[in-house]
Design a protein that fits this description.
The protein has about 180 residues and is mainly α. The chain contains 8 helices and no strands. The N and C termini lie far apart (about 50 Å).
Length: about 180
């Protein structure tokens, strides 16, 4: 075994093809209007921010984020997957320092309706694993505060997801 392979630095056989695929996807994203690309990037980042609030982004949460990004942006699946993966990586690397800045940027460009749609999507992502933890719920409240969403609007959206709220579930009794 070579030292490069051991360290994970040796390129696999299909690396050139994978690089070309990534380039094609990046080229597709470049075709978007800059405002639209920024909106999608911020939207995906905030989805990841809330999904990662409990320090784990589950496979179910990732699939829901990808579906939501496809639906909201009109991007084909490969590009939506790429956007979500980039957002997840950025959230893990820069979350503590970028969360407020990205949310504020989103808030400046989004309409009131888009902000409410984002909150609904945040609850949907966190409910993907049938449980919205208290920490995820609190992070959604934080995002809503940063976006200056009225408390009554947040509660109206949250009430649609009450069956998933961990704080409202009966504790399981062991036997």
């Amino acid at each position: 075994m070579s030292i490069l392979k051991y360290l994970g630095l040796e390129k696999p056989q299909g690396a050139a093809a994978e690089t070309e695929t990534v380039r094609k996807i990046a080229a597709e994203l470049d075709r978007l209007e800059p405002e639209s690309a920024r909106y999608i990037a911020a939207f995906a980042y905030i989805l990841s921010r809330v999904a990662r609030a409990d320090l784990v982004i589950s496979a179910e949460e990732t699939r829901v984020m990808e579906r939501i990004v496809m639906e909201r942006s009109g991007l084909p699946e490969p590009q939506a997957v790429l956007v979500v993966q980039i957002a997840k990586t950025q959230t893990a690397l820069l979350g503590g320092t970028e969360n407020y800045l990205v949310t504020r940027e989103f808030g400046r460009s989004a309409s009131a309706e888009q902000k409410l749609q984002l909150i609904d999507c945040l609850f949907a992502v966190c409910a993907a694993d049938d449980n919205i933890s208290a920490v995820e719920d609190n992070e959604i409240r934080q995002v809503a505060d940063e976006l200056r969403i009225e408390r009554r609007d947040l509660i109206a959206i949250r009430s649609r997801y009450r069956q998933f709220l961990g704080v409202l579930k009966k504790p399981e009794t062991g036997g």
